[in-house]
Fold these 2 entries.
Entry 1:
Amino acid sequence: MMITESASGKLILFGEHAVVYGRPALAVPLSQMRARATVQAQDKSGIVIRARDLKRELSVKDAAADDPLATIVRVTLAALGVTGNLHITVESDIPPASGFGSGAAISTAIVRALAAYFEKTLSRTEISALVYETEKLYHGTPSGIDNSVIAYEEAIRFVRERAPETAGSSRGTARAVIRPFAIARSFPLVIANSGIASPTKMTVGDVRRGWEREPARYEAIFDSIGVIVEAAQMAVARGENEALGDLMTQNQRELERIGVSSPEIEDLLAVGLRAGAQGGKLSGGGRGGNVIFYVEEDRVDEVTRALPGAGAVSVIVTRVGGTTTGD
Ligand code: PMV
């Protein structure tokens, strides 16, 4: 028997970083990019994982305790109460370290494929909790938003319930309130990939050090981001999408103040805005990864054409909302 399951990528629309500190954030699945995992029995004993894109092959038994691929297999088999001699192949068309949630998507695909292979059912919350175990390895102190939006595969508002633990003590699942949010009118989003791989662990760590040094200043910035997120959620619920451009730009300004932007991101933003985008911001950890733009329908082509000249290695147009989210 051979079972293949997949999981989507994701984008954070508003609220990254502040979400680690208990403020709300909005995220959407990006179904046009997917990670896939295939599980089949093997004759040899043990479990082998082959990650084609990462050019890695590893034995779960011999892998380091903090290896994310081995970890997701170990925790999932333990949760399912099963074991076996398995060959797991992982493929992904989600670029890593770009803010598209590639790590969480690969982990989610593996959890889904293992559950299906053993004919077990896991709820979205259970899948999300298992994937969170590997997010901790990638991110240090993740909020849990990536694993949630990918396991739920719908537009979500995410609020972490408690303050982040100190580095190194992030055991257990972060409790969070996760709710789908309404999008009255779908809208296009232009996504420019800067091509700069920027590990989220680094920017999250730097923000933490900044917050430890100047807690009041950082808390005030996180509060402003929280207000922007509320306004954005209200705007999309009412179909007032034209407010999103300004709100994105305001969110970007706050992210600049906590040091997670970069000259490359700001060049892309400047060119996108000059080409007619109504607003934009970095998405995800920052200092690289993606820049997203809110663009009225009739300017999408112009903005899309301008961005490669400003250093974008790829530009994607997606639709957010309705039944076509991400397709
Ligand atoms: O870099 P990404 O897209 O995986 O997003 C990270 C989002 C942060 O808010 C920066 C961190 C987190 O754990 O929420």
Note: Residues 12, 16-17, 19-20, 99, 101, 139, 142-143, 145-146, 200, 204, 284-285 surround PMV (CB under 6 Å).
Entry 2:
Amino acid sequence: MKQLKELEKLRQEIDIWDKKLVEAFEGRMKVVLKVLAYKRKHGLPIFHGKREEQVLQKAVGHLQEKDFTEEIQALYKEIMGISRKLQSKHLFPFNIVLIGFMGSGKSIIGSHLSQQLAMELLDTDRLIEQKMNRSIKSIFEKYGEGYFRRVERDTVKALCQEENKIIACGGGIVLHPENVRDLKNKGKVILLEASAETIYHRLKEDTTRPLLEGQMTKEHIASMLQDRKAYYQEAADMIIGTDKKDIKEIGEEIIFKLLSLCASSDIGGRR
Ligand code: S3P
């Protein structure tokens, strides 16, 4: 009985600290939004890796019991991820949809943006592979392209409900006009462009693209690019060239252009 009372008392103590934690968290998030509004107003860069590093170090410095160093670092990494996510939600209240030819960098840029903006990445090819429990190559081999396109269409339909996600699309998604319509409905469509030369160099050792199998040549890539050019351009809200640029540069350019797009149409920052 006495033991139980002691435990109850300790639990009440935890409740008091939790209340303080929640208050502190709420206060912090409100200031994060004020900082965001200030940066937007004055055209300052939004995401700042160095500042996050400083915040982490300061937090560790505030510790009285150094035993908790590892825990406070884990907590702050989480808090900063949450702060980034909160900012992204306010800045980009839509899906960021990446389209473009095979090898244009949709998956790798998608994963970089996902990390930078703390937004979840959905990759249509990976979703199809999970659903079918087979690689894209094996789906093409066993069922053919027509079947793959139908599964791809169903995948886009299912994605229609998503919000605040980064969606990396298979290169042929734009061939179906209803896919484009659905993706644009809740998202801004970003076309990643690359020359046939660049694509060839990026993919020449690749064996996972059925449409390039046995015809991995610059000429074939150039001809497919030409056939699809109008589809890609028609679908795009924004076009980003990726030739001779690194991932970080492309990511920064996308964020910068999205912010300009939001500023001009007054989408971002209203929630
Ligand atoms: C395709 C592109 C591939 C994949 C499939 C068909 C296409 O995706 O969906 O092989 O028609 O361009 P990536 O663009 O991610 O390679």
Note: Residues 102, 106, 125, 136, 170-172, 209-211 surround shikimate-3-phosphate (CB under 6 Å).
